[in-house]
Amino acid sequence: MIITGGTAANSLTFNTNQNNQIVSGIAGLTIKNFEKFDFSGFAGTINFTGNANPEEVIGTANNDTINSGAGNDILAGGSGDDSITGGAGNDTYFVDSLGDTISELNNEGIDTVESSVTWTLANHLENLRLSGIANINATGNDLSNFLRGNNRNNILDGGAGDDN
Predict the structure, then answer these.
(1) Beta-carbon contacts of residue 139 (< 8 Å; ≥ 6 apart)
(2) What is the pLDDT of residue 24?
(3) What span, in angstroms and rounded, lies between the C-alpha atoms of 110 and 94?
(4) Are the CB atoms for 104 and 125 separated by under 8 Å?
(5) 24 backbone φψ class: left, alpha, beta (φ>0; ψ -120 to 50)
(6) Which residues pair with 100 in a beta bridge?
(7) How many domains does the chain have?
(8) Average predicted confidence (pLDDT) for the chain
């Protein structure tokens, strides 16, 4: 099966209560020319691999694996414990679970994490913004980080580096 979008910005939404199919496991499935993928209504778990185009990916409520490839990507794993890997480009990650993990290699762009839980930046991530209504904290890494709290009581610890 081949699903092909047009030349404009295209979105693909998966909305099914069936949890017996994994998108990467559908035999012969190829998705071309789509930039936005919303799996939030999908009852299963996703194992998503992107390409060199910018993408926006929203995961499921389960433990997803998202590998975006190059491009300025927006990646939200959903409410499970997700494994998210960016790539070259300025990526934005949305995390909401202490079990989420983010992987970036050195010199792959200026990346931002927006977190609704207390979060510590992993290596090669530059910016951290806190969201939500909880009293949560932000901790930087050895890079020069930009940390921003939410509207609650936060502790912002820049770690090593020249932080803002």
Answers:
(1) 119, 120, 121, 128, 157, 159
(2) 46
(3) 15
(4) yes
(5) alpha
(6) none
(7) 1
(8) 85
- One-letter identity of residue 99: G
Residue 17, Ramachandran bin (φ over 0: left; ψ between -120 and 50: alpha; else beta): alpha
pTM here is 0.84
CB under 8 Å to 101, separation ≥6 — which residues?
82, 83, 84, 122
pLDDT in tens, 47-59: 888 877 778 999 9
Domain coverage including residue 142 = 2-157
User: Does 162 map to a domain?
Assistant: no
| CA–CA distance, 96 with 82 (Å, rounded to integer) | 9
Task: Identify the CA nearest to 40 among candidates 67, 12, 59, 55.
Answer: 59
Is 57 exposed, middle or buried, given 0-12, 13-18 or 19+ CB atoms closer than 10 A? buried
pLDDT in tens, 95-149: 999 999 999 999 999 999 999 999 999 999 999 999 999 999 999 999 999 999 9
